C-alpha cells in the first residue's frame, strides 16, 4: 500500500472503531489489528484520556532503576550514541522495563517538554493496557521490533507521535527491557526502526558478554570480518560444551531455536569439537577459528574465556549432566548480590547446596570483602529466612560481657546483671541463623563453651542450672587463617573442625573480574535517583588499585564522590574524588610498569608526555605534588593528562 492509501485505510479503521466500538481487521495490517484489539479489550477508549495514576513516584522509580541497574549501565552509552544519530529530529531515546515503565529518557530538550506533557517521562507506563497501541507496549506484546506512526496509535491523543521500539533480550530469550525512539510524527523516519533495533542488539551483546563471564563464549560470523561487529553471533557455553545462552544472530548462524538452549552441545553443531578449539586457543589465544557446520558451511569464530580454561587433555565427559539455565537459576538473595565474579559465584553456589542441611559454613576473606553481607544473603536464601539473623562480632564484644551476651544470664546472676535476666544472642537466633563474625578473635575459654553448645544444641545461661534447647544455622566468618591459629594454639582444633563444615573464601576486590557491574550496583544503591556511571579511564584505575579495605573502602569512596558531584552530573570522574583519594589511587602507578610505552619508544607527543609523567611519579615514589613540580606543571594538569590517557581505548 502507498502512503496515501495507508492513511485512508487507517482513517476508515479508526472511524469504524469509534462508531462501532469494534476493530475492523479489513483496514489494518495483522499486527496493528491485534494490538488495537488488545487495547479495546483493556477497556481503553480511543478518544479517552490517560490515567495519571500510571506514573511511578520518585521512590518507585528509584527502586525500579536499582532493580534494572545492570541494564541501565549497559544501555546508557548506547542511548547517548543513538541520540547523537537523531539529535535534530525532535526525538527522545527511551529505555523501558519489561512492563513498559520508562526508566530513562534522553533527548531533545524542546521535545522533552512536549514529551513530558504526554507522559513520555521516566516513571510513566507505556504498557498497551495503559496507553493502547504504541511502539513500547506493542513491542512487549509482540516481542519484536515495532514502529508505530501517527494515527496507528490507538489513543488519538498520541497521534502526533512516531515511535520505533525494539526488545532487549537476554541470552536465554528473557525480555530485559525495551529501547525506543519517539518523536514528532512527520513523514520520513524510514531508518529509525533499523537504528533502534541495531542499538538494542548492541545492548544485548554487551549484557550477554557481561552475564556470561563465567562461561566460555564463541563470537562468530560467516565472514571473518564480521566477528567483533554488532552483527556477530555470541554463544555462551559451559566447560563441558552445553549451549547455555545465545544472541539472535548466533541462533540463526547455528540454525537452532531458543528451545535448544541447555539441551544441545556445541560439538553437535560445530566441528572440530570443543577440545580442539581450546587447545588451539591455548597455543594462539587470539587466533580466528574456522568451524564447520553439519551442512558443510563455514563459520569464523573467536573463543573468549575470562575464567581459566579447561585443563589440556581433560577427557570429555561421556554423559555430561544437563545444566540449569542461568535465568532459571535462583533469584534468591545470594543471586541479587552476584555481580558476575566467578569465584564469588562459586562460593555462593556451594553455600546454596548446604542451606537447610545443618552444615556449618565458614566464610573466609580479607576484611571488608562483604562476608557479613554474604552471610545475611545466605540466611535469606535458605529455609530459615523467616527466622532471625543474629550477627555477633566476636572481636567487638568486651571480654567481660561476651559470655552473658552470648549465653544469656539468669535474673541477678552477677553484679550489673539485668533484673529480669537475658536470653542471650544464641537463643535470640533460635529458628534462624547465628552469624559469628571474627570468630578467630573469640577467647579460648569461650571457644570451649561454644563448642559445647554446638555439640549439645542447648545453652545454659550464666547463673542458671537448667539448659535451654537452641536450634540455629551457624555461619562464621574470619579474615584470619584459622588453620594457622589452630597450629599456633590460639584456636581450638575441635571447634575449628566443628565450624568448618563447608569453608568458602570470598575474593578480595582487586582480584574480582566483575568490577564494572559491581560498581554499577553500588552506584545504583548510593544514587537510586541518578543513572550513574564511572568514566572509563577512572574505572580502569579502580581496576588496577590494590583496595586494602576491599568493598568497604570502595563503597565509601563512591559514596563520598557521589556526594561531592553536582546534581546534574551522572559520570563520576577524577575531579569528583578528594585529593587523598586521587593520591591513593595514583600511588601504585610508580610501582606498575609504564603502561604506554612498554618496550617500544613513545610514538607520539601524548605518549611522550605520559611516559614523562610516569617516570616523574616513579622518581617521586607516587608523590603527585612532587612529580608535578618536577615536570613544571600543575597537579590539575597532571591528573588531567593521566585521566585523558586512561580514557583512550
Ligand atoms: N556486594 C556488595 N554490595 C554492596 N555493598 C557491599 C557489598 N559487599 C560489601 N559491601 C559494602 O562493604 C561493607 C563491608 O561489608 P561486610 O561488613 O559484609 O564485610 P566483611 O568482610 O564482613 O568485613 P569485616 O571482615 O571487616 O567484618 C558493607 O558495609 C557494604 O557497605
UniProtKB/TrEMBL annotation:
Keywords of this entry: ATP-binding, DNA-binding, Nucleotide-binding, Transcription, Transcription regulation
Classification via InterPro entries: AAA+_ATPase, AAA_lid_NorR, GAF, GAF-like_dom_sf, Homeodomain-like_sf, HTH_Fis, P-loop_NTPase, PAS
Organism from which the protein derives: Hydrogenophaga electricum
Name under which the protein is recorded: Sigma-54-dependent Fis family transcriptional regulator
PROSITE patterns: SIGMA54_INTERACT_1, SIGMA54_INTERACT_4
Domain Sigma-54 factor interaction stretches: 349-563
Matching SMART domains: AAA
Amino acid at each position: 500500500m502507498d502512503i496515501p492509501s495507508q492513511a485512508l485505510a487507517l482513517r476508515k479503521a479508526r472511524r469504524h472503531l469509534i462508531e462501532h466500538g469494534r476493530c475492523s481487521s479489513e483496514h489494518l495490517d495483522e499486527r496493528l489489528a491485534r494490538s488495537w484489539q488488545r487495547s479495546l479489550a483493556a477497556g481503553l477508549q480511543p478518544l479517552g484520556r490517560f490515567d495519571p495514576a500510571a506514573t511511578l513516584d520518585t521512590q518507585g522509580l528509584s527502586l525500579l532503576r536499582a532493580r534494572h541497574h545492570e541494564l541501565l549501565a549497559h544501555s546508557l552509552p548506547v542511548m547517548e550514541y543513538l541520540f547523537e544519530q537523531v539529535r535534530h529530529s525532535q526525538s527522545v531515546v527511551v529505555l523501558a522495563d519489561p512492563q513498559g515503565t520508562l526508566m530513562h529518557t534522553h533527548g531533545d530538550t524542546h521535545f522533552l517538554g512536549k514529551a513530558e506533557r504526554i507522559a513520555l517521562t521516566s516513571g510513566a507506563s507505556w504498557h498497551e493496557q495503559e496507553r493502547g497501541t504504541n511502539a513500547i507496549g506493542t513491542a512487549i506484546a509482540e516481542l519484536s521490533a515495532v514502529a508505530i506512526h501517527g494515527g496507528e496509535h490507538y489513543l488519538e491523543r498520541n497521534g502526533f507521535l512516531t515511535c520505533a521500539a525494539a526488545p532487549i533480550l537476554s541470552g536465554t530469550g528473557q525480555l530485559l527491557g525495551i529501547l525506543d525512539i519517539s518523536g514528532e510524527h512527520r513523514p520520513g523516519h524510514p531508518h529509525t526502526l533499523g537504528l533502534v533495533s541495531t542499538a538494542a542488539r548492541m545492548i544485548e551483546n554487551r549484557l550477554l558478554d557481561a552475564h556470561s563471564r563465567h562461561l566460555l563464549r564463541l563470537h562468530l560470523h560467516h565472514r571473518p570480518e564480521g566477528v567483533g561487529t554488532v552483527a556477530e553471533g555470541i554463544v555462551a557455553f559451559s566447560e563441558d560444551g552445553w549451549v547455555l545462552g545465545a544472541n539472535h544472530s548466533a541462533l540463526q548462524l547455528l540454525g537452532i531455536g531458543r528451545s535448544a538452549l541447555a539441551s544441545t552441545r556445541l560439538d553437535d553443531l560445530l566441528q572440530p569439537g570443543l577440545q580442539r578449539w581450546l587447545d588451539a586457543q591455548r597455543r594462539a589465544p587470539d587466533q580466528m577459528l574456522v568451524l564447520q557446520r553439519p551442512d558443510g558451511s563455514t563459520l569464523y569464530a573467536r573463543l573468549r574465556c575470562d575464567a581459566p580454561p579447561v585443563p589440556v587433555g581433560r577427557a570429555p565427559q561421556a554423559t555430561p549432566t544437563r545444566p540449569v539455565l542461568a535465568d532459571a537459576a535462583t533469584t534468591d538473595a545470594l543471586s541479587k548480590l552476584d555481580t558476575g565474579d566467578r569465584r564469588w559465584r562459586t562460593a555462593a553456589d556451594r553455600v546454596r547446596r548446604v542451606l537447610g542441611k545443618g552444615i556449618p559454613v565458614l566464610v573466609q576473606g580479607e576484611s571488608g570483602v562483604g562476608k557479613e553481607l554474604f552471610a545475611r544473603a545466605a540466611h535469606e536464601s535458605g529455609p530459615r529466612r523467616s527466622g532471625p539473623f543474629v550477627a555477633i562480632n566476636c572481636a567487638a564484644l568486651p571480654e567481660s560481657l561476651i559470655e552473658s551476651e552470648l549465653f544469656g544470664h539468669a535474673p541477678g546472676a552477677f553484679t550489673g546483671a539485668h533484673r529480669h535476666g537475658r536470653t542471650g544472642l544464641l537463643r535470640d537466633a533460635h529458628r534462624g541463623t547465628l552469624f559469628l563474625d571474627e570468630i578467630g578473635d573469640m577467647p579460648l575459654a569461650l571457644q570451649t563453651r561454644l563448642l559445647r553448645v554446638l555439640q549439645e544444641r542447648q545453652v545454659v545461661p550464666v547463673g542458671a542450672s537448667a539448659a535451654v534447647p537452641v536450634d540455629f544455622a551457624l555461619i562464621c566468618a574470619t579474615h584470619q587463617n584459622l588453620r594457622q591459629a589452630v597450629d599456633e594454639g590460639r584456636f581450638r582444633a575441635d571447634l575449628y573442625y566443628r565450624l568448618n563444615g563447608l569453608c568458602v573464601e570470598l575474593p578480595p576486590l582487586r582480584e574480582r573480574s566483575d568490577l564494572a557491574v559491581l560498581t554499577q550496583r553500588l552506584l545504583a544503591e548510593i544514587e537510586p535517583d541518578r543513572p550513574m556511571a564511572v568514566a572509563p579511564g577512572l574505572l580502569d584505575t579502580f581496576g588496577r588499585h590494590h583496595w586494602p579495605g576491599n568493598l568497604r573502602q570502595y563503597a565509601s569512596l563512591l559514596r563520598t564522590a557521589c556526594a561531592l558531584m553536582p546534581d546534574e552530573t551522572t559520570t563520576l570522574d577524577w575531579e569528583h574524588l578528594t585529593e587523598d583519594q586521587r593520591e591513593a589511587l595514583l600511588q601504585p602507578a610508580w610501582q606498575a610498569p609504564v603502561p604506554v610505552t612498554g618496550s617500544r619508544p613513545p610514538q607520539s607527543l601524548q605518549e611522550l608526555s605520559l611516559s614523562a609523567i610516569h617516570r616523574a611519579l616513579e622518581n617521586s615514589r607516587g608523590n603527585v605534588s612532587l612529580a608535578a613540580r618536577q615536570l613544571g606543571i600543575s597537579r590539575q594538569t597532571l591528573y588531567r593528562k593521566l585521566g585523558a590517557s586512561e580514557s583512550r581505548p
